[in-house]
Amino acid sequence: MGTEELRAAVLQEANAEATALIDAAAAQASQLVNGQKRQLEEYANTQVAEHRAIRDKEIATQAIALKIELRNAILKRKQELLEGLYQELEKKVRDDDGLYRAYLERAVQQIGQDIPISIECRSQDEPIITALLPKRGKWKGVHIDAVLADSNGGFIAHYAESELDLTLSAASTALREVTLVEAAQILFGGKK
Q1: How far is CA 70 from the centre of its chain?
Q2: How far is the C-alpha of 171 from the C-alpha of 90, rounded, in Å?
Q3: Distance between CA atoms of 125 and 153, rounded to whole angstroms?
Q4: 3-class SS of residue 191
Q5: Greatest alpha-carbon span in the chain
Q6: Is 121 within 8 Å of 129 (Cβ atoms)?
Q7: Is the pTM of the predicted complex or chain greater than 0.90?
Q8: Is 116 exposed, middle or buried (CB count within 10 Å of its CB: 0-12, 13-18, 19+)?
């Protein structure tokens, strides 16, 4: 074998070795790139999943907050309606002469046999209450003071150590207390 042939054989062997090394390095680089690509994809998928979970939790929290806010607004409106009903009833009794006189008659009956020292009422109610009170015995000495505001009806009977509030606002408050549970069940969805 001549030098040229030897040289060509060495060169061919070196080329084959270099090609094998390049192929091995390319295969190793490809595996490394594929591994890193998979890791990056897994990381990206994890980040996307975490972001979606956070976003879904925020949306659920906002939805719950909005539901609570809406429920509170509805409850407040129902409460306003209920309060309006009691005020409307009070106004209707006060503004209807027949109903109001019947209310005063019933209120005078509630005084019973105990004779009050004085009675506070509206100025326009003084003659009606005077006419409704008994005219006999100690009842003649009951002093009637026309000091209640025109917006309130009824009267307050004062005794030595107590008073009996028979105003429309007191009657409305008592009615609220008696009907509160039933009205709340109807309006706010309690037990029926």
Answers
A1: 7
A2: 9
A3: 8
A4: coil
A5: 159
A6: yes
A7: no
A8: buried
Task: Determine how β-strand 143-146 pairs with β-strand 154-158.
Answer: unpaired
What span, in angstroms and rounded, lies between the C-alpha atoms of 92 and 77? 22
Q: What is the mean pLDDT of the chain?
A: 87
Q: What is the Cα–Cα distance from 187 to 165, expressed in whole angstroms?
A: 29
Pairing state of beta strands 143-146 and 163-167?
A: unpaired
State the CB neighbour count (10 A cutoff) for residue 166.
22
What is the sign of the dihedral through the CA atoms of 180, 183, 185 and 187?
negative
Distances (CA, A) of 142 to 51, 101, 120, 157, 182: 80, 20, 11, 10, 39
Each residue's pLDDT tens digit, 101-156 = 999 999 988 887 788 989 999 999 999 988 888 877 777 778 888 888 877 889 99
46 contacts: CB under 8 Å, gap ≥ 6: none
| Better-predicted residue by pLDDT, 185 or 57 | 57
Whether 53 has a pLDDT exceeding 90, the answer reads yes
Report the distance separating Cα 156 and Cα 167, nearest Å.
Answer: 6
Helix 168-188 × helix 3-95 angle, to 10°: 140
**Which residue blocks in the chain are alpha helix, DSSP H?**
3-95, 97-111, 126-132, 168-188
